[in-house]
Write a structure and sequence with these properties.
globular; mainly alpha; Serine Threonine Protein Phosphatase 5, Tetratricopeptide repeat
Length: about 280
């Protein structure tokens, strides 16, 4: 049986869902001080290169704005009181520019230091990360997102949503040890096994590491809590397909179609269902 490739599944599901990047081997600690110092210097040099590319990218986003839009921007930025932050954030949200939204959210959070402001900053840096044009920009975006959620947690360590999103950032490369993110999710689930977001992200982790049986358990848990959670249903269908459970995969994907109003996605799912049926006949 030929299941969908990872790219096909991500195309079906869309870019709004978090992709968890799992690293198999943890980084080794340097035992030689000279080598460690050299690596630190190299890391700083790489960070400077990433920052330079990132700043150039931000500048390019501004230059691509029409003269009329640039004029509106200049009027907003001339506002002297803190209300300009909200105006600029809404302005760039309407333009669908997540990096520019994140830039002003960060400035707002720096002035108005609240957990909610830092969490919103992290959210838009993460959105930018998903659509970044190159690795340098992705590197800076995920670092900014990780740092923003960490600051949110520093201000509000009780809110599990901040911990969940922080964990997702770590697993996308925003931390030294990706397993730290998994451990954070496990702690959230230990406190509340019905936390849908944490269960879903653990399911994604299991899929990425090809632990499909574990993923099935996670997504079934999500669906028991939210029967119309189309993302979980779709991933569950993929898991069954990868496990060779064709009938369960087909049944699950048929259920998914009832929760989806997107004709394009449903057409893709129909095509996959046909492939599953044909493979069953071979």
């Amino acid at each position: 049986m030929n299941a969908f490739s990872r790219n096909q599944w991500l195309l079906i599901i869309g870019a709004v869902f978090f992709t968890l990047l799992i690293y198999i081997l943890p980084r080794k600690l340097e035992s030689n001080g000279a080598v460690s110092e050299k690596n630190n210097a190299q890391d700083l040099e790489k960070h400077a290169d990433h920052s330079s590319v990132y700043q150039s990218y931000l500048d390019s986003l501004f230059t691509k704005l029409s003269p009329h839009i640039q004029g509106q921007y200049k009027s907003l930025i001339s506002i002297k009181d803190p209300s300009k932050f909200d105006s600029l954030i809404v302005f760039f949200k309407n333009l669908k520019q997540p990096f520019l939204v994140a830039n002003w959210l960060k400035q707002k959070a720096t002035v108005i230091n609240t957990a909610a402001n830092w969490a919103e900053t992290g959210k838009f840096y993460f959105i930018g990360f998903e659509f970044a044009p190159n690795q340098e920009v992705k590197h800076v975006a995920i670092e900014e997102a990780t740092n923003a959620y960490k600051l949110a947690i520093d201000l509000d360590s009780i809110n599990p949503n901040y911990q969940i999103e922080y964990a997702a950032c770590i697993m996308e490369g925003g931390g030294e040890n990706p397993m730290q993110g998994i451990n954070i999710l496990r702690e959230v689930i230990q406190k509340d096994s019905n936390n849908v977001a944490a269960q879903f992200k653990m399911g994604i982790f299991a899929v990425r590491s090809q632990q499909f049986e574990k993923a099935v358990a996670r997504f079934n848990k999500v669906i028991s809590l939210e029967p119309n959670n189309s993302e979980a249903i779709l991933y569950l269908g993929e898991c069954y397909a990868n496990l060779g459970k064709r009938e369960q995969a087909i049944k699950t994907l048929e259920i998914f179609k009832k929760t989806s109003n997107d004709a394009i996605i449903n057409a893709e799912v129909d095509d996959f269902i046909e492939k599953l049926k044909n493979s069953n006949n071979n």
